[in-house]
Design goal:
44% helix; elongated; RNA polymerase sigma factor 70 region 4 type 2 domain-containing protein
């Protein structure tokens, strides 16, 4: 029976499937050089790396780009349902998260109160 690894808040590098210096090179890579950097990494490790990066807000997009280099079965094996979602996301154009922003524009807030308020001075 396989044991699940727990995530470490104290040292997130413990959960990273590649050495930290390699992760740094991958994080700094531009779109053109990224495929060459990850090409030498075994696909199962790339899938775990994609899941690792996708789970962090500041490397979300990089996780999706690395997932695009993996087969769906490998991503599913690495992360189950999350692997399925990651596979689907990696096969369509990237859309940055909106974080709840409204398409209709900012909501105006008035500190003057309502015109119908009976407590106006």
């Amino acid at each position: 029976m396989a044991q699940a690894r727990s995530s470490s808040i104290d040292d997130p590098t413990l959960d990273c499937p590649v050495p930290f210096d390699e992760l740094g090179r991958i994080s700094r890579a531009d779109s053109e050089s990224l495929p060459a950097l990850v090409d030498g990494i075994p696909e199962s490790t790339r899938a775990r790396l994609a899941v690792y990066l996708y789970g962090r807000s500041h490397t979300h997009e990089l996780g999706i780009r690395i997932a695009a280099t993996c087969e769906g079965t490998t991503l599913r094996r690495a992360a189950g349902i999350v692997g399925n979602v990651l596979y689907d996301l990696s096969r369509r154009p990237y859309a940055p998260p909106s974080y709840g922003s409204r398409a209709s524009g900012p909501t105006r807030i008035s500190l003057a109160g309502s015109k119908a308020s009976p407590h106006r001075v």
